[in-house]
Design goal:
Number of helices: 3
Helix content: 10-25%
Shape: globular
Bound molecules: inosinic acid, magnesium ion
CATH architecture: 3-Layer(aba) Sandwich
Structural class: alpha/beta
Strand order of the largest sheet: 4-3-2-5-6-7
Oligomer: single chain
Order of helices and strands: EHEHEEEHEEEE
CATH topology: Rossmann fold
Strand content: 25-35%
């Protein structure tokens, strides 16, 4: 099968992603055994990772979703909640599941918002971490892969809403489309 247009190289194959998700899920299963775990993901990018992670975690858990939108051209990190969680998170152990932590603005906003709702604990689990572009520091508890400073697609990450369904993670060059 030939790669779709714009795909430059595969960073992590589907098998590598599955393997790493299983490892992180095992860590989470051990850490949260006997506790009241809820995974929270932001629509839409993190949905693919959340479902894979949830399937690989071996303890009971709940899931919930929220959606955010950035307002206007206000700059990075200027986001608001477009769809809120369905249920409160008070006294629960919350893991915020991210597709990628890049500058950190989005994650910081979400952490601040969720922390105000008094969860018992609040952590971050991200599929990809691009620390080279970090502007605000956020405490990443679990990450599957560190990636270089290149735009990537697949496993939920999109380019103009496409390529989310790729099973692998690939570097993409938008100029080659
Ligand atoms: P941050 O606020 O800069 O950390 O941005 C995080 C969001 O930007 C992610 O949730 C993605 O939706 C998007 N994003 C950042 N880098 C990439 C990428 O390489 N490919 C696709 N989406 C990305
Ligand atoms: Mg996106």
């Amino acid at each position: 099968m030939t790669a779709p247009p714009g795909i430059e190289r595969v960073l992590f194959t589907e098998e590598q992603v599955e393997q790493r998700v299983r490892e992180v899920a095992a860590e989470i299963s051990a850490k949260f055994e006997g506790r009241d775990l809820k995974l929270i993901a932001v629509l839409k990018g993190a949905v693919f990772f959340l479902t894979a992670l949830a399937r690989a975690i071996e303890i009971p858990l709940e899931i919930d979703f929220l959606a955010i939108s950035s307002f206007g051209s206000a700059g990075p990190g200027m986001v608001r909640i477009a769809k809120d969680l369905d249920h409160p998170i008070q006294d629960q152990d919350i893991l915020l599941v991210e597709d990628i932590v890049d500058t950190g603005f989005t994650t910081r906003y979400l952490l601040q918002t969720l922390a105000g709702r008094e969860p018992r604990s609040l952590g971050i689990c991200t599929l990809l971490d691009r620390t080279a572009r970090r502007i605000v520091q956020v405490p990443v508890d679990y990450r599957c892969f560190e990636i270089p400073d290149r735009f990537v697609v697949g496993c939920g990450l999109d380019f103009k809403q496409r390529y989310r369904n790729l099973g692998y993670i690939a570097v993409m060059d938008p100029d080659k489309i």
